[in-house]
Amino acid sequence: MERINGVDxxxxxxxxxxxxxxxxxxxxxxxxxVLEAICNLIYRNDEKFRLVNGLILSDNGIxxxxxxxxxxxxxxxxxxxxxxxxxxxxxxxxxxxxxxADELFLAGNPITNDRNYPECLRPIQKNFKLIDGIPxxxxxxxxxxxxxxxDINTDGYRIDQNNKNDINLFQNSNDWHAIVIPDSGxxxxxxxxxxxxxxxxxxxxxxxxPCYYKFSSGEHQFLLRQCFDQLKYLVDVCKMEINVPxxxxxxxxxAALSEIQIDKIVKYYxxxxxxxxxxxxxxxxxxxxxxxxxxxxxxxxxxxxxxFQSVEGLENIVINLSSPKxxxxxxxxxxxxxxxxxxxxxxxxxxxxxxSNVSKVLNIMSNLNAIDLGNNWILDLEDVKELSALGLxxxxxxxxPLCSQYSYAGEYIKAxxxxxxxxxxxxxxxxxxxxxxxxxxxxxxxxxGYDFVNEFVPRFFKCFDSHDRQSLKELYHQSAIFTLSFNYxxxxxxxxxxxxxxxxxxxxxxxxxxxxxxRAHTSIHLGADQIMQVFFQxxxxxxxxxxxxxxTMMYNENMIVITINGVFYDQAPSIVDNDIxxxxxxxxxxxxxxxxxxxxxxxxxxxxxxxxxSIYNPTAQQIKNAFKYFKTECQDDCDEATxxxxxxxxxxxxEVTNLKSVWCTRFLDDxxxxxxxxxxxxxxxxxxxxxxxxxxx
Length: 697
Hints:
This protein is of the alpha/beta class.
């Protein structure tokens, strides 16, 4: 008992037979009887045993831990059984069923090479907080081979330029291999180093899925398996070097895709067979299948693969959709899984460069009519034109470098429709029969805010341009602030027009042009009532939403900030006057004021707490493009109900009428989703006894 550490009470019996006291005696703890005698001796020494907080029994050739049952009910800090000869999971689970410790060490035992490890320890996992350094709650879902030991460099067979031909020894290996990329600093992030790695690998060979990435001791480390042809390619052709392109920003990355300029060469090495593969560890196809299930919405018939890498369950594997081959593999699995049930596919924010090879795969989805490829790295329409074989009705491409090739909307629309003549919606905007779009939104925002901005912007400006600006009052918080800055330069303007724009000047807060600085305070309009008074004083306007550039500066659960740039006409009060074209910037700050609204308790009510409107002269380009595709007559204010609106209406209609959902949908659809009209239609059918009893629940 002299080996007890006085500080933490750990009894260290590591390599017990090497103790000097046993110079003339052989004590083998691998012998069950000897181990049992030692355990009984420890347990019965009451004076010493109460000081023992843990046992270190590593490297003793132990094959069974049955003698440890004497410690049933004892709670150790640590129980270290590393580097022994424990084989049976059922026996260790039985023998340690009543033994508890904060941490159990088993690394180096044959049991850890079992394909069922660590699942095989499930019966005793509750007895320990950590097993080989891994929290027991993570063993099943996040168990990483890299977490077994602190330093993987001591394991495996190293392949570098000095012995590169030895790679052939591992052609039939099913074990994990490690890619180790030295990076002092670190100079590169995880995402950067993996992006550069995928630029290096071959697109013609086996799919490659990096797993269990971590940055340790100044090195990027991740595991691969079942991709020998790729590993051989990296050794023989790439010489275990990653070419880092000269990139300074995201836009530079787009340029680098077509013509890569090498800025730096990063060397790496491989460690072969560092860990055996075990059941419960990552299987790429299984991960993809589960991710597709999580991202498919059966109600909307929508497969949402936006930012696919962020899907739950892909934390320890990289599914790189920028690789055309992997993209095709994922979409093939999706097509076979969903067949004709998928109507819309979203693939935004995946660094996709080309979709030329996926049209045949997507043909299996016979009802697919909408694809979202926004915010990717697509350089040219040639890279997407093969999707035209699908007969798409809706396509989104905004946010890709290809959009910068076109100076105005009409040119862009015309180019897209040459390849996709059946489109009715481009970038979520309706296209008329003659190729003219009704409303444009060209904004940069967090993808989560896309639907919000799509709803808020058209509704606000349609109402502002109407004769019912009073209805905007409910959009403003009771403490809202509104300021107007008018910087329009008047040149050769008639007295009548000068009088018209005076309404803007009266409410303007341009401090540099105020002759009376006391107005700097009075021109700040506080509260919804004051803001409405200003709106009523402003002349009639007609905004050209095709010119809008909308930027969502902030989007989170506490605040939304939207900035809109565009042009509008100050409308002439009579036919003898002319409309005045003006440019504007309008910034809205919105906050949530009520949550869990609506029948589904999912709706959130937002109100504007701050708005800044600046008006100035339009640029030459704005003058050229203003109202280029705009109808002179007013647009239809009737907005089509969204899918979420329809879901809520069906539930409400079912509550009121007790009809089956199929009949609810029929009445609502016949009334064009007008709830009041659909109820009147239902009552009319009831009076005429046209509804069968089977239609009711």
